[in-house]
Write a structure and sequence with these properties.
Urease, subunit C, domain 1, 34% helix, 4-stranded mixed sheet, 16 strands, 2 domains, TIM Barrel, 20% strand, alpha/beta, 421 residues
Length: 421
């Protein structure tokens, strides 16, 4: 008995196999043609025809309450955030705050729903979603996100982060709202310590978040050092805080852009500390001119993932919730163009990204959860080159999205053939 058979699926090692799925898991991986589909009673059959099949995508950093809000806030924050060496990143956050004065789940929830539909279409089935909790927007964004996420609970795994975007020292009352957010169902304690006005207050911010995470049995995820200032050291603070609060392996630092401006000895020192604390990283090179030294950290086996970060909001005007698109953009931003680097890019939005978020078993293997995508193409090169929505998306063992893309060329000689692949 089986729920699904994917026939003639090409694995990343080049083998062409038949995948058998039942009760949400991959129950068999056999040489192509070995599985007698006619004998598999009641199973749906996907004809992969040699297309590449991989694990589904993981988005380690997404500001979900802000998606599709650019029209409400304008370009002011966008210009400040992305200019030069990102020295005006703090100004951008202050400008972008105005949208939260009008926070209302009546418009937030439909926007979130739209972003989650796109996630499913593009095979992004796991995401870490930051949601602002502060004295400007209150908990309205959280309610708007939780309402939409509940609609997708049987398809998507969304880790909601209670995120005090405006700080916890400089925004009195935000800490209490963060605790309320955890009580209401947020999964992760968030933070943004570099936004505080002094090193002492940055430390207080980190200590608050790590203490709350330890007390409530949560992970911690912070936006650290998101500006072009080599004096910023809140990534280091987070790693030390994790060690001090017994949170080893339970923390993620997003952005850490300033680390890219450090001298190499300081980068190596931080990488060693991160390894000791089990601190993982999510980088978003496409949303700013500076980024974490991804190549160095990855080469030192510090877990690094890539994130979408934003979709059409005050900080980034584009985005489709396609992690293939992110990998394509990051290939250029990071200079990762060779074959082995292409393979690694795919890791950073699938298996390695799952490691960063603490998701166990996210690998295409017998006995593992059947969260996978059948791509439109056979090679990783072409999958990245076209960064199209997958042919099929399978979540927890069932098909949840199917995309067919073809183009015809009436009257053009020599343009015949299957251009959908």
């Amino acid at each position: 008995m089986a729920a699904l058979v994917v026939r003639a699926a090409r694995l990343r090692d080049g083998r062409v196999v038949d995948l058998v799925v039942d009760e949400g898991r991959v129950t068999a991986i056999a040489d192509a043609g070995v599985v007698d589909v006619g004998a598999v009673d009641g199973a749906a059959v996907l004809e992969a025809d040699g297309r590449l099949v991989t694990e589904s995508f993981v988005n380690g950093h997404m500001h979900l309450d802000k998606v599709h809000s650019l029209d409400r806030v304008g370009d002011g924050a966008l210009g400040a955030y992305t200019a030069g060496s990102m020295g005006s990143a703090m100004t951008a956050i202050e400008v972008a705050r105005t949208v939260k004065e009008d926070y209302d789940r009546a418009w937030i929830t439909p926007n979130v729903r739209r972003a989650l539909v796109e996630a499913v279409r593009h095979g992004t089935l796991h995401l870490q979603a930051f949601v602002d909790v502060d004295t400007t927007g209150g908990l309205e964004g959280l309610h708007g996100v939780l309402d939409a996420v509940a609609e997708f609970a049987d398809v998507l795994d969304v880790q909601v982060v209670a995120f005090p975007q405006d700080g916890v020292v400089r925004d009195p009352g935000a800490a209490e709202l963060g605790e309320q957010a955890i009580e209401l169902g947020a999964d992760v304690v968030g933070g943004i310590p570099w936004i505080e006005h002094s090193v002492r207050d940055q430390q207080r911010h980190v200590d608050w978040a790590c203490e709350l995470a330890a007390r409530t049995g949560r992970r911690v995820a912070m936006l650290t050092d998101d500006a072009g200032d080599p004096a910023l050291r809140t990534t280091e603070m987070l790693a030390v805080g994790m060690l001090d609060h017994d949170l080893v392996g339970l923390g993620v630092a997003c952005h850490a852009r300033a680390v890219g401006t450090y001298e190499r000895p300081s980068q190596l020192q931080l990488a060693g500390l991160a390894g000791k604390a089990g601190l993982a990283f999510v980088s978003d090179p496409q949303t700013g001119p500076l980024h974490l030294p991804v190549d160095l950290f990855d080469s030192l086996d510090v877990p690094v993932a890539l994130g979408q970060d934003d979709i059409s909001d005050a900080y980034y005007p584009f985005g489709r919730h396609s992690m293939l698109e992110i990998a394509f953009l990051c290939a250029h931003a990071l200079g990762w163009l060779s074959g082995p680097q292409q393979e690694r890019l795919l890791d950073l939005v699938t298996t390695r990204a799952a490691d960063v978020l603490g998701i166990s078993g996210h690998v295409l293997a017998e006995g593992r959860p059947a969260n996978l995508v059948v791509h439109q193409h056979e090679r990783v090169l072409d999958v990245l080159r076209h960064h199209e929505a997958p042919r099929w998306v399978v979540s927890r063992g069932r098909v949840v999205a199917e995309t067919v893309a073809t183009t015809t060329f009436p009257g053009i000689a020599g343009a015949e053939g299957d251009h959908g692949r």
